[in-house]
């Protein structure tokens, strides 16, 4: 794929996996629109990345459907839409799980991704791609992840059906494992450090993931025009444990 001729919108592009994806695609020569909720955070995050001249940014709340519709009407035809939107709630043992927090977890990830996907469809070229970011919690049975699995499993259950309904647009997802991003900053530093140590010792690859690992998988799904209805596990082998 000649990325110089491609226009990509990345929602959630101001940090973590989204920012790594923006950086990777811009370096490849794509024209990228990075979307986040805070323009100041976007400006700071995007400053100095390779290919910065290829990147535009826009502050947008993806829970606001009217704002999404206006955005996609302005941006014009795009080749690829990447949804890296996420939240931080929904984890914990089910017998102690705050279901109100789990509801907020759905509101922070499931609904914004679906609203953005639906709003963006008219802008995606006929044979372009739509790619979601879910999480490996949808595919494992680790205690404490039932709520997170429900959020991400709901998204993953739609991928195949959407691939058929929206063809010839391609619809795929990447399902990350433990990735060293700001998502983990809500935990005490000592807890995060110990968890990452345990993961590095037990994962087949011997380390936790980086945002760039997931960005690489996202780029692959955009580039490979024979991939649709697929969910790629980018988890270092966590699902095998």
Automatic annotation (TrEMBL):
Keyword Magnesium attributed: no
Keywords: Oxidoreductase
Transmembrane residue ranges: none
Single annotated GO MF: oxidoreductase activity
PANTHER family per the UniProt record, alphabetical: DIHYDROANTICAPSIN 7-DEHYDROGENASE
Family membership noted in the UniProt record: Belongs to the short-chain dehydrogenases/reductases (SDR) family.
Protein name in the entry: SDR family oxidoreductase
């Amino acid at each position: 794929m000649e990325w110089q001729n491609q226009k990509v919108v990345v929602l959630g592009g101001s940090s973590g996996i989204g920012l790594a994806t923006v950086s990777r695609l811009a370096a490849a020569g794509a024209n990228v629109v990075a979307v986040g909720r805070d323009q100041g955070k976007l400006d700071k995050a995007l400053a100095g990345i390779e290919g910065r001249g290829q990147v535009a940014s826009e502050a947008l709340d993806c829970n606001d459907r009217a704002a999404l519709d206006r955005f996609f009407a302005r941006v014009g035809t795009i080749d690829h839409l990447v949804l890296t939107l996420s939240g931080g709630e929904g984890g914990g043992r089910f017998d102690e799980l705050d279901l109100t927090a789990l509801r907020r977890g759905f509101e922070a990830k499931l609904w914004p991704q679906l609203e953005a996907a639906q709003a963006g469809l008219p802008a995606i070229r006929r044979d372009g791609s739509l790619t979601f970011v879910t999480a490996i919690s949808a595919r494992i049975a680790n205690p404490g992840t039932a709520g997170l699995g429900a959020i991400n499993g709901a998204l993953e259950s739609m991928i195949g059906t959407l691939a058929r309904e929206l063809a010839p647009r391609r619809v795929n997802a990447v399902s990350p494992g433990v990735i060293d991003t700001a998502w983990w900053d809500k935990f005490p530093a000592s807890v995060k450090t110990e968890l990452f140590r345990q993961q590095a010792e037990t994962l087949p690859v011997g380390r936790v993931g980086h945002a760039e690992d997931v960005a690489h998988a996202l780029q692959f799904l955009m580039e490979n025009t024979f991939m649709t209805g697929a969910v790629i596990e980018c988890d270092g082998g966590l699902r095998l444990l």
